[in-house]
UniProtKB/TrEMBL annotation:
<dbReference type="InterPro" id="IPR026992">
    <property type="entry name" value="DIOX_N"/>
</dbReference>
<dbReference type="Pfam" id="PF14226">
    <property type="entry name" value="DIOX_N"/>
</dbReference>
<dbReference type="GO" id="GO:0009805">
    <property type="term" value="P:coumarin biosynthetic process"/>
</dbReference>
<feature type="compositionally biased region" description="Polar residues">
    <location>
        <begin position="1"/>
        <end position="11"/>
    </location>
</feature>
<protein>
    <recommendedName>
        <fullName>Fe2OG dioxygenase domain-containing protein</fullName>
    </recommendedName>
</protein>
<keyword id="KW-0560">Oxidoreductase</keyword>
<dbReference type="Pfam" id="PF03171">
    <property type="entry name" value="2OG-FeII_Oxy"/>
</dbReference>
<dbReference type="InterPro" id="IPR044861">
    <property type="entry name" value="IPNS-like_FE2OG_OXY"/>
</dbReference>
<comment type="similarity">
    <text>Belongs to the iron/ascorbate-dependent oxidoreductase family.</text>
</comment>
<keyword id="KW-0479">Metal-binding</keyword>
<keyword id="KW-0408">Iron</keyword>
<dbReference type="InterPro" id="IPR027443">
    <property type="entry name" value="IPNS-like_sf"/>
</dbReference>
<feature type="domain" description="Fe2OG dioxygenase">
    <location>
        <begin position="221"/>
        <end position="294"/>
    </location>
</feature>
<dbReference type="GO" id="GO:0046872">
    <property type="term" value="F:metal ion binding"/>
</dbReference>
<feature type="compositionally biased region" description="Basic and acidic residues">
    <location>
        <begin position="12"/>
        <end position="22"/>
    </location>
</feature>
<dbReference type="GO" id="GO:0002238">
    <property type="term" value="P:response to molecule of fungal origin"/>
</dbReference>
<dbReference type="InterPro" id="IPR005123">
    <property type="entry name" value="Oxoglu/Fe-dep_dioxygenase_dom"/>
</dbReference>
Length: 347
């Protein structure tokens, strides 16, 4: 689009034509991601990363408000039935009102968490020629590195590089994983999968179902692990690490470093919280997200809809049934737009 100077008596200069498609392709072709831009010494955010004003509301505003987030303590829940009942009640309340909760005493060693964060950092900060070997937009690959899974479909690119590995149902061999972090990827994934099984049982019971209900319908069968890297940004007021969205998985287990950046925005028995990720001058920021329930192979034909045991005349289904493959494909095609992709399934 050509933009003319409004002053007809002026020199008549026009802004250069903005060819977004070609700029996106040029960025993608470098295979070096956002970190490559920082390494090149840029001092301004490229236009493809600038988000519309409605996406950037309140990103620099700080308040003195302190929120008391729900914290679930898993210590002793398998030995003490009364404690388990109390935890189930807390899980139900947190899932209905917040859509997320923090888990403590979950059995994953602190050293493993620290090593995982450092492993993600090591991958993204290693020699660029090694990283390029994994750069792809072929979602069938077991290990994928790129910047923005929805680079060509989202309204604005996010200030984020990521790699993801498919860890279940067919876990990769160690040699198939990035050498910079293969050992810790396997160790962390095994512990997170154990945690997810425990959480799915608690969520099932919180819904009034058999403890194994969500596991039996294969909500925990697939597991994709994402290592996100948010480089320091020269103009953090113009872009986001991730715009407002809700995750398209049955369960997300999130680990983030001490710099944080996750910001909460605020049938539907349990909520999927909307959130976004901010960027900053400092950094980089690191987060690791484990997604359970995405169609990692593209071959699953299982159909999911509202759980029949939860439906009644007073509570009819609010969403149509779909496959995980169809839902995942829809999200990838639309990109992150700030509204839940579930709206597409509303009856």
């Amino acid at each position: 689009m050509m933009v003319s100077n409004n002053n007809s008596e002026n020199s008549g200069k026009t802004e250069p034509k903005y060819d977004r498609k070609n700029e996106l392709k040029a960025f993608d072709d470098t295979k070096t991601g956002v970190k490559g831009l920082i390494d090149a010494g840029i001092t301004r955010v490229p236009r493809i990363f600038i988000h519309p004003p409605e996406n950037l509301q309140n990103i620099t505003k700080t308040t003195g408000t302190k929120f008391s987030f729900p914290v679930i303590n898993l210590d002793g829940i398998d030995e003490d039935p009364q404690k388990r009942k109390q935890v189930i009640d807390k899980v139900r309340d947190a899932s209905e009102t917040w859509g997320f909760f923090q888990v403590v005493n979950h059995g994953t060693e602190i050293t493993v968490l620290d090593e995982m964060v450092n492993g993600v950092r090591k991958f993204h900060e290693q020699d660029v020629e090694i990283k390029k070997q994994y750069y792809t937009r072929d979602f069938t690959k077991k290990t994928i590195y790129n910047s923005n899974f929805d680079l060509f479909s989202s309204p604005a690119a996010s200030w984020r590089d990521s790699f993801n590995c498919i860890m279940a149902p067919n876990p990769p061999q160690p040699e198939e994983l990035p050498s910079a972090c293969s050992e810790i990827l396997m160790k962390y994934s095994n512990q997170v999968m154990e945690l997810a099984i425990s959480l799915f049982k608690l969520l099932s019971e919180a819904l009034g179902l058999n403890p194994n209900h969500l596991i039996d319908i294969e909500c925990a069968q697939t597991f994709a692990l994402f290592g996100h890297y948010y480089p320091p940004c020269p103009e953090p007021e113009l872009t986001l690490g991730t715009p407002r969205h809700s995750d398209y998985s049955f369960l997300t287990v999130l680990l983030q470093d001490n710099l944080g950046g996750l910001q909460l925005i605020s049938n539907d028995k349990f909520k999927s919280v909307e959130h976004r990720v901010l960027v900053s001058h400092s950094g980089p920021r690191i987060s690791i997200a484990g997604f359970f329930g995405r169609d990692t192979s593209g071959t699953s034909s299982r159909v999911y809809g509202p759980i029949e045991e939860l439906l009644s005349e007073e509570n009819p289904p609010k969403y149509r049934a779909t496959t995980v493959k169809e839902y995942t494909s829809y999200v990838r095609a639309r990109g992150v737009h700030g509204t839940s992709a579930l709206q597409n399934l509303k009856l």
